[in-house]
Records
---
Amino acid sequence: MIHYKRAPQMVDAHGPVLHADGFEDAVIGIAQRCGETPVVIYSYAACIAAMVRKGMSEHEAMEFIEFNLVGAWCGPGTPMLMHEMGFAEVEEYAEGWESARPGDAES
């Protein structure tokens, strides 16, 4: 299980910014949008690597990260995980997104 901690020095008008305890080396930045709480961003690959260093297989680490970080919602300050990729990779990823959007299927 991942423990989320409030970063007391990182509280804005929308609530606290949270960070996942034990993944400090995987932090790659902060994301913010107009009118929303900033969130800590973690490198997905670095989080997997951290769990592998702790003795998990890569598959176990992916399942753990998907369930405990990607699948967690602790409010507006919940951290994000980022899959680092270039623009061409983003476009390719987005093509799969577009074909999987609900309501876009022909009747």
---
Amino acid sequence: MSNESPTPEFWERADAIIGLANEQCKDAQNSKVSTSLIYASARFCSFIVANNSERMTEIKSNKNDAVNYFTEQFHSTLWPEGFVSTGLKQMPSVNGYG
């Protein structure tokens, strides 16, 4: 969990995931793809928290901090003032989406 400015590799990873979601939108409703993407992100974030913890008690004690962090990241991406606070000046698009 870093406050550094995004690197080109960050944008490449994000673009790859957005590109996959855009492809899935060709065969499914946008809302269904969005729901799947949010679910996948939450599962992966849970894995990261668990993987960085040595014991179940540590996972439980870090849960609220992790939820707060990921919620703030989600919020800052959705609202323009978040871009300023995280150093993101603009959000690039992939194939005209995102």
---
Amino acid sequence: MDVECKYCRALRFVAERKVGSSEANPVFSNCCQGEKLTAQQIPLLQDPPSFLRELLTGSTPRDKVFRKNIVKYNNALCMALVHTNWVNRGAGTVKL
């Protein structure tokens, strides 16, 4: 990520810019919709609970194991929040 969006300050790759915008003055559409949102309008993240903060910043063996495996934990839990309606389309076919 080598470019900062001038509107929301998100870090982006220059290749992600909108078609027609230049490399010298890139405009991005999928972080803040161009000028529609500014950094002041985007809410700041709240501090994590103390237990999670300790896992993210601590130096105990447990904290180090957590950070080593954080991507695995995220991947395992990311589908837990998906809500869908299952449609059975016959033998072996399911539509989400």
